[in-house]
Amino acid sequence: MKNLQTLSCDDGCLARSDSIFKHLSKEELDLVTFEKTVEQFKRGSVIYRESSRINGCYCIQKGIVKVFKTGIDGKEQIIRFAQAGDIIGFRSVLSSELACTTAEVLDDAYTCYIPSETLVHLVKNNGNFSMDLMQITCKELGEANAYITDIAQKTVRERLAEILIHLKKDFGLDDNKVLQISLTREELANIVGTATESVIRLLSEFKQDQLIELNGRKIKILDEPGLIRIGNLYE
Amino acid sequence: MKNLQTLSCDDGCLARSDSIFKHLSKEELDLVTFEKTVEQFKRGSVIYRESSRINGCYCIQKGIVKVFKTGIDGKEQIIRFAQAGDIIGFRSVLSSELACTTAEVLDDAYTCYIPSETLVHLVKNNGNFSMDLMQITCKELGEANAYITDIAQKTVRERLAEILIHLKKDFGLDDNKVLQISLTREELANIVGTATESVIRLLSEFKQDQLIELNGRKIKILDEPGLIRIGNLYE
DNA sequence: CGTGTGATTGACGCCTGTCAACGTCTGTGG
DNA sequence: CCACAGACGTTGACAGGCGTCAATCACACG
Hints:
The structure is a homodimer.
Chain A: H1 9-15, H2 26-35, E1 37-41, E2 46-48, E3 56-70, E4 76-83, E5 87-88, H3 90-95, E6 102-115, H4 116-125, H5 127-153, H6 156-171, H7 185-192, H8 196-208, E7 212-215, E8 218-221, H9 224-230
Antiparallel strand pairs in A: 1-6, 2-6, 3-4, 3-5, 3-6, 7-8
Helix pairs in contact in A: 4-5, 6-7, 6-9, 7-8
The structure holds a DNA duplex.
């Protein structure tokens, strides 16, 4: 583990101890190494686009990717974010459907592209890999179900507080307690499922109430328990 | 196929040609047959309950089951319905989490219970079974993502029209064009994510507009294209 | 310095949730 | 056979959360 940082990005996703590839045999690792393609994406570029056919999945080695669906009038609904260690695009590959989301890069990213055939081969032939991937998928499904309930039942105010807590959990805070992910107000609105103006107003309220501090896109978390209370997140 | 109806319920889920078990070997079929338990549930009974540990999954052989999460103030959010041929509970088994939903019987049901160990054994050792189950999971995930976008962006009116179309697709109409699933107004509200009164008012409007006809819980679909238009379902 | 994107604020009004009252139907028990 | 309870459906009144529109500000960039 100690030389993790010195690994070339070619080895990145295969070597991580928490990677989806942790259960591969020597031969399978060689196969993946042979078949995969490392790609680099700049902020703003699109890895794959909704309703396109996609012939493989992407392991994120570095960077942040936002995954969203396009709804009425082209309004984005952000489904999730992916960062180092996450894998995106496999849903469409394995369900043999067109991509149901678009994946766009927020922070410059390196990805490792695995062709469908390789992925399917692994699922079919390596029971442990299969279980791992199944587990990831099932967790995502559980989160999606929870979010359906939240959007359906909570107010925008509650959801915004909740999202701030989630972002903190997923991306952490820097030394100054500032969220380590930078989003526009519009993007925040597209996670919460509301209008940009509503996010702005509610963030101001949170600031007034000493829950957060704002500095452009930097959001500093002052009172996490307070946000948890507002978001009804007792669990 | 022609003697499907004469099969005892013990053979039901294993014999269906569209079943998740279609790719099992003779030995595996024997194993499942040996390990499974057929259970009968009356309307109103609960198959498994949210946040309980669940040690297996259930294949529905007959009946209708509603799967829901309990949100704020105990308000239900219906996630999906399951009917003959569907499998429920595997999400929690495979993600090693507590059940994230409750499954309650709407129409008297027969289920076939498969213990976790058997399910996991199959996933690990039968690549085709694994792929099939993965496909089911991925499809559910795709639907969940779509529903998140809908709830976040569409009005209650649009969502109600959409749900009626979905129910028609999933459960069909009888000879009289009446939806083959009977739900209370509250249950409809708990799918759409709104208040019971709103559903009642909107259904009345739909009736006024000659889109549907109401007779207690019986909903007759008069103008499907009209509902599709209202629900913004062009695809 | 103009242009464009994003952030902010205010005004306005509708959708929709909440509360309350009442009607309807079914099953139960006296 | 009737009274009653309880679950469900319906309707009306009302307020407020939140979306929409528009104007203005802030800031970065070519």
